[in-house]
Amino acid sequence: MKIELRVNDRDVSWDCEPHEFLTEVLRRNGLTGTKRGCESGDCGACAVMLDGREAPSCIVLAAQAAGHEITTIESIGSFEAPHAIQEAFVDRTAIQCGYCTPGMVIAAKALIDRNPAPSEREVRRHLAGHVCRCTGHVKPVAAVLEAARGMEGES
User: Fold this and answer.
1) Which one of 75, 106, 130 terminates a domain?
2) Can you tell me the distance from the alpha carbon of 99 to that of 102, in angstroms, rounded to the nearest whole number?
């Protein structure tokens, strides 16, 4: 089947099987920053923004995403011009192996877009569904709080 959706500010038309999950379709179309993890929506590695809200792409059927807007890590900053959240993750050494980082950055962006000045408790709650075996959550939480402070006043 063919689905039409908006991915990273571009209108796309992709082929997929009715039973295929969004993670696989994104990766097949070159968006490999969305990682495969638990495949049950529990680890956060596959997080994307679906219409501006964080969603686990491993349990969203690609067909369900038709007509919606998807934001992946590929559209949040770049190597040459990182987003403030990505810079904060580097500055706070919140990145080790990097496998969980794209999902955490997506989660942080979704949170800060909705609440530009989240409390530490809100950040912790928002990142709770993200598994990180290298750093845990202390450094990522600090990075998100730093990024939010640095982004105050941005629109």
Assistant:
1) 75
2) 7
